[in-house]
């Protein structure tokens, strides 16, 4: 697809299946397919376009249970792709995203409806307890592609 083609890209229960590191075809070096995918998503999104993703995260069992999960993610993995840190730049990430939402949730809970972050101390404590006991096994990403308009 041409660059700046899409208003949105979705990746539900997909990112955990994309390898982090693979050998190049000649076996002389390595490549980073997950970084390449995030670059490609950013490339095809229009300025202001949105990435919606939902994926299982560590330490929940769903992150490791499926033998085809080759890319374990955490609640902090998003920091590699969004401002202000964009830590994946050191591995060849050229995209530029801002996080509109990063939220721990139960499997697919957030796919149907938005659940705002807890406001009260009691709600935050309850969420922390749910996370600790493993009830929040997925993370939702909503990233906006930052690009010059024109």
Explain this structure.
- This protein is an alpha+beta fold.
- Helix content is about 20%, strand content about 25%.
- It has four helices and six strands.
- It has helices at about 35-45, 60-65, 110, 120-130; strands spanning about 5-10, 20-25, 30, 45-55, 95-105, 140-145.
- A hairpin with a 6-residue loop joins strand 2 (about 20-25) and strand 3.
- The chain is globular.
- Residues about 110-115 have low confidence and may be disordered.
Write the layout of secondary structure elements.
Elements: E1 6-12, E2 22-23, E3 30-31, H1 33-44, E4 45-56, H2 62-65, E5 97-105, H3 109-112, H4 121-132, E6 138-145
Parallel strand pairs: 1-4
Antiparallel strand pairs: 2-3, 4-6, 5-6
Short structural summary:
Helix content is 21%, strand content 27%. It has four helices and six strands, in the order E-E-E-H-E-H-E-H-H-E.
How many beta-strand segments? 6
Helix content: 10-25%
Q: What class would the helix/strand composition place it in?
A: alpha+beta
Element string (H = helix, E = strand) = EEEHEHEHHE
Enumerate the spans where pLDDT stays under 50 for 5 or more consecutive residues: 108-114
Oligomerization status of the protein chains: single chain
* C-alpha end-to-end distance: 18 Å
Strand fraction equals 25-35%
The biggest beta sheet reads:
4 strands, mixed
For the largest beta sheet, what order do the strands appear in spatially?
A: 1-4-6-5
Q: Which tags fit this structure?
A:
single chain, two-stranded antiparallel ribbon, 4-stranded mixed beta sheet, alpha+beta, 150 residues
């Amino acid at each position: 697809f041409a660059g700046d083609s899409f208003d949105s890209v979705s990746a539900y229960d997909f990112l955990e299946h994309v390898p982090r590191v693979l050998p190049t075809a000649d076996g002389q070096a390595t490549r980073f397919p997950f970084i390449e995918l995030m670059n490609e998503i950013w490339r095809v999104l229009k300025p202001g376009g949105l990435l919606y993703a939902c994926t299982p995260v560590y330490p929940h069992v769903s992150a490791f249970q499926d033998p085809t999960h080759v890319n374990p993610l955490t609640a902090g993995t998003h920091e590699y792709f969004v401002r202000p840190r964009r830590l994946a730049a050191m591995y060849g990430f050229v995209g530029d995203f801002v996080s509109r939402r990063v939220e721990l949730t139960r499997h697919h809970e957030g796919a149907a409806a938005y659940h705002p972050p807890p406001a009260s101390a009691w709600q935050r404590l309850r969420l922390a307890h749910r996370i600790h006991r493993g009830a929040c096994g997925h993370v939702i990403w909503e990233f906006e592609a930052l690009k010059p308009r024109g």
